Amino acid sequence: MNLKPIQKLLPVLIVALISGLVVITYQISFGSLIFSGDLSPYLSSGIGFCLMGVVLIGSIEALLSGTPGMVAIPTVGSAVIVAAMAAGISSELGGTPDRVFPTVTAAITISSLLTGGAFLLLGGLRMGDLIRYIPYPVVGGFLAGTGWLVASGALKTMNGIPLSVANLGRFTQPEALIRWIPGLAFGILLFLTVRRYKHYLITPLAILGAVGVFYLLLWLTGTSLEQATRLGLLFQPFPAGMMWQPPPIGQLAAVDWGAIARQTAEIATLILISSITLLLYASGVELSAGREVDLNRELRACGSGTLAGAFTASPPGYTIITMSVLSSRLGANSRLVGLLVAAICAGVLFFGAPLIALFPKPVLGGVLTFLGLTFLADWLYDGWRKFTRADYAIVALITLVMSTFGLLPGLGVGLALAAGLFIVQYSRVPVVKHFFSGRTFRSRVVRTHAHAELLRQEGLALQILELQGYVFFGTANRIYEQIKERLEAAGARPASVLMLDFRWVNGIDASAALSFVRLKRLLHEYGVLLVLTGLLPEIEQKLRKDVLTLSDQDQWRVFPDLDRGVEWFEQRVLESEAGQQAEVSAQPGVVQVGQERGGLALLFAALGVAAEQVEQDVDQALLRLLGYLERVELDAGQALICQGEPHESMYFLDAGELTIEYRTGENQTLRLETSGPGTIVGELGLYLGTPASASVTAAQPSTAYGLSFDNLRRLEMEDPLAAALLHRFLLKRVGQRLQRSLEAIDALAA
């Protein structure tokens, strides 16, 4: 006999039965929370609305979810907000039953339609990651405040009296104490037990045990069901027949649409909080169960279910973390879990009205108390250890405001505080990501040895600040102060160019632009030119108004990126009179090739310098090297080396300019280097024998001399001195590159 189907089905049945019992209890509690006070006569319909929500939302979630075993129901978060909305409508309409019930029902329907539509929109736009942009303390404060509202709502469910300072005397009357103290005690006991022992059977067994103890006490005290009902310990008997009744569509004329419109803020809060909570719960399932959850698919599944439930006046529903994790823990990863829970609720809905009427109010109040205490403990008690003191203050303040003034004020205060705290903390993040000088940061233009040495000597004249983040009034002023300190510390020899790189800056505000105006004035006083690189179009547009003005364009420059800006500075140095003199003095033994000193002559001069004149026949050896080189003439745009293709030559550039570019996997082209006369390209491919890692193209008509692998081997055998000079120069070139890289790393580390 094959037992595998039974072994797979058994965990599913266990999870469905446990979840069904707990979910039914929750929905009775939520219905009692919403339809209380003036809406008490319609409690049967309210509970029916919630149970029908489980049937529709739960079954649709089970079918459409990307993670089998997920359970979705109308939850405490939505129930609390809907209850507040219902209480507000009831208070505004003066408790008139023939107007309150249809108006509240219409408000629930509209809220669920809008919430379900928001779920579908967010999921369709693949915005499930939005949860990561909500300040965590705000979410925690809302959930803690929800816990307080649920716990206080539990007292109203059990006693029929809203908790307030004015009603405290009524709560201490003997007949009231009998109604709420047992439920409060049960809720506290269940909360402490679940906190101490982590087992999935505790909650359902505790609920069954509490119901049993309740009826045992009635039997021991000789209290009849009628007496218990008069004492407020049981619900009034519900009408015969099935519990669920369609929403009163025929009473649309009695709906006060103005009262619903005045609940716009609460409806908006419901949409926002439901979206956040859905994503939080789904993420919680992902973490707790160790299973990948498609947040966007969950949004679409819960959105479809909530839209269907809206037409039955069900509050919005979404994934519940406890039951979904339970499915995973017991190996019940099947869509049958959600479908069976929905079927159990449907059975109670259509055939169990007499049983629900026998469910003790203290037990329901205890379950609500347990839920409220769970939220409060998670975010206020445990939050003391996991939050910073500033974040915890936000959580506590939101809870206080929500318990005193309601949901929306608490959420608004929390968002305002979180935004203020973020601004303060963000302003402390260093806006200057890195600081370089022209000595430690070079452009991608490959220079001759003489030019490189000159640029190293003059490198301190260029100061580079690499900025990051969003620049606003606080961070912009810090940039100004740091630069001012550097200028004052430099004394009589400040830098001649200050370069601000905006590559990592994603925006600036108006006050930041004014700080850059002050900076430009300061630099002008010290004779320092301001250069800006890597500006986003919107940032450049803001700076054009006050900073990059035509009237003083001799005080600033703009370049598309940092590399182009540094290249401009280097060219500026090389074109100066000092650069020309340094080039002449750096080449005492220049080898003349023909009648002109071209790039090849500059290269040979560098080879001679690299040899440090240790050999007697250096000049003659370099001249003999010419016999091993092959002349190559290139037109503008012509490729010398192609990325990915094998090549067995390196090239000495005599005239013109070569551009070295790398093509990425996304088919984007990045400039790596620009080589001028007297430089070498392709040496790594020659030595390593690997395909070209980048392409080399002539930026203008150019002349190069190639040394192939075969000619290099022939050179090594026929003229060891010339080969040794070449190898020594290339080794020195690699060492210089490594030295510059280490200097750049030191600058980054500093």
Please specify the SSE layout and strand pairing.
Elements: H1 4-34, H2 43-64, E1 72-74, H3 76-92, H4 97-124, H5 136-159, H6 168-171, H7 174-196, H8 202-221, H9 225-230, H10 257-261, H11 264-289, H12 295-310, E2 317-319, H13 321-329, H14 336-351, H15 353-357, H16 361-381, H17 383-386, H18 389-405, H19 407-427, E3 432-437, E4 445-446, H20 449-457, E5 462-471, H21 473-490, E6 497-508, H22 510-526, E7 529-533, H23 537-546, E8 556-559, H24 562-574, H25 577-585, H26 599-611, H27 618-625, E9 630-634, E10 639-641, E11 649-655, E12 658-663, E13 669-675, E14 680-681, H28 683-688, E15 695-698, E16 702-708, H29 709-718, H30 720-749
Parallel strand pairs: 4-13, 5-6, 6-7, 7-8
Antiparallel strand pairs: 1-2, 3-5, 9-16, 10-15, 11-14, 11-16, 12-13, 12-15
Structural commentary:
This protein has 750 residues and is of the alpha/beta class. It has three domains: 4-406, no CATH class; 432-580, Transcription Regulator spoIIAA, CATH 3.30.750; 591-749, Jelly Rolls (Sandwich). It contains 30 helices and 16 strands. Strand 5, helix 21 (473-490) and strand 6 (497-508) form a beta-alpha-beta unit. Helix 11 runs parallel beside helix 13 (321-329). The longest helix has 31 residues, at 4-34. The relative contact order is 0.10. Residues 582-597 and 612-616 have low confidence and may be disordered.
